[in-house]
Design a protein that fits this description.
Helix content is 37%, strand content 18%. It is α/β, with parallel strands linked by helices. The two termini are 41 Å apart. The chain folds into three domains: 203 residues, Thiamin diphosphate (ThDP)-binding fold, Pyr/PP domains (Rossmann fold, 3-Layer(aba) Sandwich), CATH 3.40.50; 94 residues, Rossmann fold (3-Layer(aba) Sandwich), CATH 3.40.50.920; 150 residues, 3-Layer(aba) Sandwich (Rossmann fold). The protein has 18 helices and 22 strands. Helix 1 packs parallel to helix 6.
């Protein structure tokens, strides 16, 4: 029998669903998926969603692929779109980096469901993932709102039976102006009375819910933990929707069992909504660990359901244990990182290659608060400091920080690592913004590799300059040189 992994299931669903527009921003764990879908890269997740909203409004089904921290960036148009309504189906695939392996934070994208008041589907297998995407497009067009489908790296890698093509015609429905007759409050009232009520009905009746009854102990699960919980000799309710939850189905299941274990990852999203029941166990009660789960975790939890575990001292994972790599040995920016380590001023970095310079042997970057954040952060330093930003990070969201620094006459040195690629996420081409930067602020160029003394001299000179200034450090990434 032929098999198909989760990534292939998404590609098949996009074909079957006649998806016309596909946008993404790279990052683990969705970069390879976006490439397989032949999606178009955007400078950031907000723009990726805005393109999809425009396509939807004019009759094209749209798919947006982002990693979990990217959900923060697109939250503004996402929340507005729920009550503003859309045209054709719009689905957001949110890739949660459990662990995490390639992110600054471990997040649970399911929380964007109640925040934006839209459905979130959380499939457990490649087949369920394919079915969830197709159902999400149908649901999106019925309710005229975006729908989130949450995936993880392990789900995308999981193997399952081959999924035969089930082509369908895209809806082609366009945005309707009827909502403009209502105030914003009126639109929100309608959203609760009609849209969310219909979403709850869909959650109760979907064939994505799976129920197995065996004994008086039950597991409620979503996502990949639902697959891990199969065949353990207890009842299992695998819910297809994490938001809204099928409350009637959950209530009947809980009433019919003496004890309930909630298996989910990474956060106790479902458990926190059921915790008022004394029979519920999970992450909040200490029966399951935070973060990603293994089948052994669920088995161990079932064995101790009768007890309330004592809190154990935590041993926190270190960089050395995980085996994270530092700056590449042949990186052209090494002399810059070494020079910055000698400067007695605060240095803000970005969530790109510069984040690796926070560790030994460089320790030249002090703080990193996210992609595109360094210029804004350095603008707030108590004394003149340095912002290190990659060229893709500058395009993503760093340019606003630079504009603000110039506007407010901040005393800050901005060093742009210009290697023409998004090096940490696969070597995608980065836009060249140097002409725009030159128009904004005094700019000089530094060709790398160069000696440490040369780099120190440039940094020292620029630190003496008042106001905002920019050094564009030019270097070719050896890891992705073929893609430049």
């Amino acid at each position: 029998m032929k098999s198909m992994n989760g990534q292939q299931a998404v590609v098949q669903a996009a074909l079957d669903g006649a998806v016309g527009v596909r946008t993404y921003v790279p990052g683990y764990p969705i970069t390879d998926l976006a490439a397989a879908l032949k999606a178009e890269i955007s400078v950031n997740e907000k723009v990726a969603l805005e393109i999809a909203l425009g396509a939807s409004a004019t009759g094209l089904r749209s798919l947006v692929i982002v990693k979990q921290v990217g959900m923060n960036i697109l939250a503004d148009p996402l929340v507005i779109s729920a009550t503003h309504t859309i045209g054709s189906g719009l689905v957001i695939i949110a890739g949660d980096d459990l662990g995490p392996r390639g992110s600054q934070a471990e997040m649970d994208s399911r929380f964007y469901g109640p925040l934006a008041e839209i459905p979130v589907l959380d499939p457990s297998s490649p087949a369920a993932l394919h079915a969830s995407i197709l159902e999400s497009f149908t649901l999106s067009e019925w309710l005229r709102i975006p729908v989130i489908v949450r995936v993880t790296a392990r789900l995308l890698d999981d193997e399952g039976p081959e999924i035969l093509p089930r082509p369908s015609k895209g809806a082609g429905q366009q945005f309707e102006r009827e909502g403009w007759d209502l105030t914003m409050r009126g639109q929100h009232q309608r959203h609760h009375d009609r849209i969310l009520a219909d979403a709850e009905d869909a959650s109760e009746s979907t064939t994505l819910n799976r129920l197995e009854i065996s004994g008086n102990v039950g597991i409620i699960a979503s996502g990949r933990p639902a697959a891990l919980a199969e065949g353990l000799g207890v009842s299992l309710l695998s819910v297809g929707y994490s938001n809204p939850l099928p409350e009637k189905l959950l209530r009947r299941f809980m009433d019919g069992h003496r004890l309930i274990l909630v298996a989910e990852e990474p956060e106790p999203f479902i458990e926190s909504q059921l915790r008022l029941s004394p029979k519920v166990r999970g992450k909040l009660t200490g029966h399951l660990p935070r973060g990603p789960l293994e089948r052994a975790d669920i088995i161990q939890a079932l064995e101790s359901l009768e007890e309330m575990p004592q809190k154990k001292p935590q041993v926190y994972e270190s960089v050395a244990e995980r085996g994270y790599s530092g700056v590449c040995e042949d990186c052209p920016f090494i002399s810059l990182f070494r020079a910055l380590a000698k400067v007695d001023v605060p240095v803000a970095g970005d969530a790109g290659c510069a984040i690796r310079a926070t560790r030994k042997p460089y320790q030249s970057v002090d703080v990193v608060y996210g992609l595109g954040s360094s210029v804004g952060v350095a603008s707030g330093f108590a004394k003149k400091g340095i912002a290190v930003v990659g060229d893709f990070a500058l395009a993503h969201s760093g340019l606003q920080g630079l504009i603000n620094a110039v506007w407010k006459k901040r005393d800050v040195l901005v060093i742009i690592l210009k290697n023409d690629v998004a090096a940490m996420t696969g070597g995608q081409e980065a836009p060249d913004l140097t002409k725009l930067v030159e128009a904004l602020v005094p700019t000089r160029y530094l060709a790398l590799p160069a000696s440490e003394d040369e780099v120190e001299a440039v940094v020292s000179e620029e630190m003496k300059r008042s106001g905002t200034s920019v050094v564009v450090a030019l270097g070719k990434c050896t890891k992705h040189v073929a893609k430049i």
